[in-house]
From TrEMBL:
Pfam families: Proton_antipo_M (PF00361)
Segments traversing the membrane: 6-26, 33-53, 79-100, 107-124, 130-148, 160-180, 200-222, 229-252, 258-280, 292-312, 318-337, 349-370, 390-412, 433-452, 472-489, 563-584
Full protein name: Na(+)/H(+) antiporter subunit D
Broad class of where this protein is predominantly found: membrane
Native source organism of the sequence: Aquisalinus luteolus
Residue span, NADH:quinone oxidoreductase/Mrp antiporter transmembrane domain: 123-399
Entry annotated with the keyword Transmembrane: yes
Membrane topology value: Multi-pass membrane protein
Keyword terms of this UniProt record: Cell membrane, Membrane, Oxidoreductase, Transmembrane, Transmembrane helix
GO CC entries: plasma membrane
Coiled coil: none
Family matches, as InterPro entries: ComplexI-like_HydComp, ND/Mrp_TM
Lineage: Bacteria, Pseudomonadati, Pseudomonadota, Alphaproteobacteria, Parvularculales
Length: 585
């Protein structure tokens, strides 16, 4: 039975949001970083004060009403607590990483962004979720703009349109659900009703979640915006939006079969996009998109093992993907470029960053004793146990692709490849960046060596052992096969670095033909309006001229008329009125 807490309750995310506003007023980057860490610690203490609860009996707090709708600002169960804890860890790492480099805008909006994500995962109803959903979109776009370039500004505008579109879909679904008498509690939903017909309100909510989860066709905002943020901003962006969407899918659509198809497509397709990208942070963005496919597949499978796998992999992904974005941010800070063809041999100048990048590469590729191995194996095992062969094959292909894109492109070519002019940098990453990366690496080691620490936090009770002979042999075979594939491609001269230039993605539709159509509509509308306005002007001029001819100084009605004529005219008018009155009655 649900335990209901009465009285005033504060969402830990709201505390971070308030702290973000205060941080914007503080002087000095170090002062803002310290204040951010203090705020994260306070939010963590507040979250811990609520304790935890099983999925079937959550603790509800902060209840009230708005416009007649019952709201619940805090729902505590193992799922919401784990994601809130994850986002607090990410916020702390972001503050440390940006100790010397985060601008006032990034420090402030980074806290508000993290607070909105925490508020969203703790929301007990869809309307509260929408409020934090939109706040996350609005705060994160300022982080994209923090890149400070014209390209960042334009990418931020496109990002804002897509994110607001997600919010519009969400509020439309909520409104339709409320209009039909549906319950706004944030619980599991179905895309079809009892008669098997498509449920439109739920479909709109599903699309809203899909935009932030970067489903295929809806994904282009992610690789467009993330690489254009600053070194610090890209790390912030990698942590919250997409994982907030994964949480929403786990909460709202567990076991929805279509998610297996969508997730499998994500896992495979974006590996090839990453292989074709020349900007290394864009490679990471596509890799992030591929890793989201693992989580979406797991939500679609819907078993306790699979859902635990989705949550566990989301936890690990925030840490190791953030660590890789940190490493590339450090490279950008020292070398001034992210072009794959301009980097190489950086292990000489940046040995500690190279070690961090190596750990990140080992984690994402699933090498044993790293976090990626124990979390990926859960989803792959769930696909195998429940005989979803196409999902299992897709995840295997994605694992091989991760070795090529991250192990080879990010680590080998950047740090071990031939030394280039742009790579002649002096000095490793600044100390705060190294500290943040080191803490993330430590988490990857701890989870990899002691997975039971993470298992104990997962939402569902399911006994799972990652370090079995089958798992170890299968994963090592995949990794060795990937290395062999790379060696053969290198030998044959096929492992060339992609050329610089625009990578054609689905956004080409609105960038090229979409722009042509839009400009055609603009010019067509302008031409029609010009004709309409010309007609209005001509008509007004005609009326004015007619009035002038009758009422002007020389007009007919302005001249003097004889008294007899006026008497006759008045008599005619009165006679006409008498006739009309007679007929009417």
């Amino acid at each position: 039975m649900t335990e209901l807490l009465t009285g005033l309750a504060l969402n830990p995310g709201m505390l971070l949001i308030a702290a973000g506003i205060i941080v914007a007023l503080l002087p000095g980057r170090q002062v803002r970083a310290i204040a951010s860490l203090v705020a994260v610690g306070a939010a963590w203490a507040l979250l811990a004060s609520y304790g935890s609860a099983p999925m079937e009996a959550p603790v509800l707090a902060g209840q009230g009403s708005l416009f007649g709708f019952e709201l619940t600002s805090v729902r505590i169960d193992r799922l919401s607590v784990l994601f809130s804890t994850l986002f607090l860890i990410a916020a702390a790492l972001n503050a440390i990483y940006g100790w010397l480099h985060a601008t006032r805008l990034e420090a402030s909006m980074g806290l508000i962004y993290a607070g909105a994500a925490i508020g969203g995962v703790l929301a007990g109803d869809l309307l509260t979720l929408f409020i934090f959903w939109e706040l996350a979109a609005l705060s994160s776009v300022f982080i994209v703009w923090g890149g400070g370039t014209h390209a960042a500004f334009k990418a931020g505008m496109r990002y804002l349109v897509i994110q607001v579109g997600s919010g519009m879909a969400l509020i439309s679904g909520i409104a339709l659900m409320a209009a039909t008498g549906g319950d706004l509690a944030f619980t599991a939903m179905s895309l079809t009703d009892e008669a098997g017909a498509l449920n439109l309100p739920v479909l709109l909510i599903f699309i809203a979640f899909g935009v932030k989860a970067a489903f295929p066709v809806l994904h282009f905002w992610l690789p467009d915006a993330y690489p254009r943020a600053s070194a610090v901003g890209a790390v912030m962006l990698s942590a919250f939006t997409t994982k907030m969407a994964i949480y929403a899918l786990v909460r709202g659509f567990p076991g929805e079969d279509i998610l297996m198809v969508i997730g499998a497509a994500m896992a495979v397709i974006f590996i090839f996009f990453g292989a074709a990208a020349s900007d290394l942070r864009r490679v990471l963005a596509y890799s992030l998109n591929s890793q989201l496919g693992f989580m979406v597949c797991a939500v679609g499978i819907g078993s306790d093992l699979a859902l635990n796998g989705a949550v566990a992999h989301a936890f690990a992904s925030v840490i190791y993907k953030g660590m890789l974005f940190m490493a590339m941010g450090a490279v950008l800070t020292r070398a001034g470029t992210m072009r794959a063809g301009e980097l190489g041999g950086l292990y000489r100048a940046m040995p500690l960053t190279a070690v961090i990048a190596f750990i990140g590469a080992m984690t994402i590729t699933g090498v044993p004793f790293f976090a990626g191995f124990v979390t990926k194996s859960m989803t792959i095992s769930a696909a195998g146990y429940y005989e979803h062969l196409f999902v299992w094959l897709a995840l295997i292909v994605a694992t091989v692709g991760a070795v090529q894109n991250i192990g080879v492109r990010i680590f080998f070519n950047t740090f071990l490849g031939p030394r280039t002019t742009a790579a002649k940098v002096s000095g490793d990453a600044p100390l705060p960046m190294l500290v943040a990366m080191g803490l993330a690496a430590a988490i990857c080691f701890i989870v990899g060596l002691q997975p039971n620490l993470l298992w104990s936090m997962l939402p569902f009770d399911y006994e799972y052992h990652a370090y079995t002979t089958d798992h170890l042999i299968t994963q090592m075979q995949l990794i060795l096969f990937s290395i062999l594939l790379f060696a053969l491609a290198q030998k044959a001269g096929l492992a060339s670095t992609p050329r610089d230039g625009a990578l054609v993605d689905i956004d080409w539709v609105y960038r090229v033909p979409g722009r042509v159509v839009l400009m055609g509509l603009v010019h067509g509308t302008a031409a029609v309006w010009h004709r309409v306005w010309w007609g209005i002007q001509a008509g007004v001029k005609g009326v004015v001229k007619g009035l002038y001819n009758t009422h002007g100084p020389e007009g007919a009605l302005s001249r003097s008329w004889p008294v007899g004529f006026m008497a006759l005219f008045t008599a005619l008018v009165l006679g006409l009125m008498l006739i009309v009155t007679f007929i009417a009655y």
